[in-house]
Amino acid sequence: MSEKRPLYKTQSELREGMLARQNFLSNRETDMSKTAREGMPQVILDTICILTFFTLALFSVNTALAEAIPDSLTKKLAEFKGAERGQIVSLKEDSLTREFPGFSFYALRFRTYPVARLPPEPLKINNLFIVKPDGSVEHIVEPEGLKKFFRTALVPVTAQARARDVAKAWLQLSQEFYQDGFFHFSIPEDSLQVAAKDSGGVEVSAKAVVNQQGGNSGEIAASLTFDPAGVLTNVSESVQIHRGIRPICQATKLLDPDPIVRGMAEQDILVMGKAAKGYLDEQRAKTRPELQQAIDEIWQ
Fold first, then answer.
1. Strands 137-140 and 126-131: what pairing?
2. Rounded to 5 degrees, what are φ and ψ at 78?
3. What is the mean pLDDT of residues 271-295?
4. Are 107 and 128 in contact (CB under 8 A)?
5. What residues are paired with 88 via a beta bridge?
6. How confident is the model at residue 284 (pLDDT cuts 50, 70, 90)?
7. CB-side exposure of 266: number of CA atoms within 13 Å?
8. Using H for helix, E for strand and C for coil, what is the string for the chain?
C-alpha cells in the first residue's frame, strides 16, 4: 500500500476545496447508496461511522468530570431519566467566584454532532445548573431565567469595576445557551464599557467573541443596567454567531476511492483543527489498521 498524503497543503487549496464541499454534502446520500450497491466494504465503513456517532453521543455524567460533582447536583440530575447521556462541565471563572461566592456553576450539554441526542424533558440541549450555598440546585435553560438569578443573587453593584466583573460573569454563563461543543469564546477587555446614566446608576456593555477557527464566527453582545441603588434592572443581549464545519463522519471517508470525497473529508478535518481530536480519537479506536493510519497521517 503506497503512502497516502493529504490532498490539501495550502490555504488557497483549502478555499478551493470548500467550494466543492456543498456539492459533496448534497450528493452524499446518492453517493453512499451507489457505493453500497457496488461493494460490501463501504457498507461496513458506513456502519462503523453510524455506530461511532452513537458512541460519541452517549456521555456519562459520572465520567465527564475529572472531579466529583456535589452530592446535591448528583441527586438533582437523578430526577431526570436520561440525564446520564449528557456531558457535565464545571464552569470555573474568576468573575463567577468573585460575584457569587459560595455558588458553583455547571453546564449539562447534550451532543448535537456528529448525531444529535435529544435530551429528556424538561432538560434542553444546553442546561445550566447552579448549586447554591444552602445546597439547593437551580436549573436554568434560557436567558430569562439567568436574569432572574442575577437579580436575586447579586450584591448591589455601585462601582464600575464590579459592573465590568458582572458583565463578564453574565457572558461566561449565557454563552452556554449557544454552545455546541465546538465554539470557543473570549471576552476582550476593550469590549467592557461602563457609562453613567443620567438618572443615576450605570450601564455596562461587553462582548463574548467567537474564536474564528474551523469556520466559526460571530459574537454575543450584552448590556446590563443598574439603578442608583446598584440593583440590576435590565439585561439585553444580541446574538450573532455562525457555526463552522462540524463532524459528519469525515474520518470514515479518508480512504474513499473517490478523490473528491476523500479530499473533502481531509479538508473538513484540517479546518476543524483541534476541535476534531475527540471525534478522531473515538473513530481511530474502533476502526481497522488502514483507516487508523490514514487518521494518524491527517492529524500530524
1. antiparallel
2. -65, -15
3. 70
4. yes
5. 108
6. confident
7. 26
8. CCCCCCCCCCHHHHHHHHHHHHHHHHHHHHHHHHHHHHCHHHHHHHHHHHHHHHHHHCCCCCCCCCCCCCHHHHHHHCCCCCHHHCEEEEECCHHHHHHCCCCEEEEEECCCCCCCCCCCCCCCCEEEEEECCCCCEEEECCHHHHHHHHHHHCCCCCCHHHHHHHHHHHHHHHHHHHCCCCCCEECCHHHCEEEECCCCCEEEEEEEEECCCCCCEEEEEEEEEECCCCCEEEEEEEEEEECCCCCCCCHHHCCCCCHHHHHHHHHHHHHHHHHHHHHHHHHHCCCCHHHHHHHHHHHC
Tell me: the pLDDT tens digits for 142-192? Answer: 999 999 999 999 999 999 999 999 999 999 999 999 998 889 999 999 999
The pLDDT, as a whole number, for residue 274 is: 65
Rounded Cα distance, 123 and 119, in Å: 6
**Which residue's entry shows cell 436549573?**
139
Diameter of the chain measured on Cα atoms: 76
Q: Can you give the pTM of this predicted structure? A: 0.68
Nine cell digits for residue 8: 490539501
Q: pLDDT by residue (tens digit) across 226-260?
A: 999 999 999 999 999 998 877 666 556 666 777 76
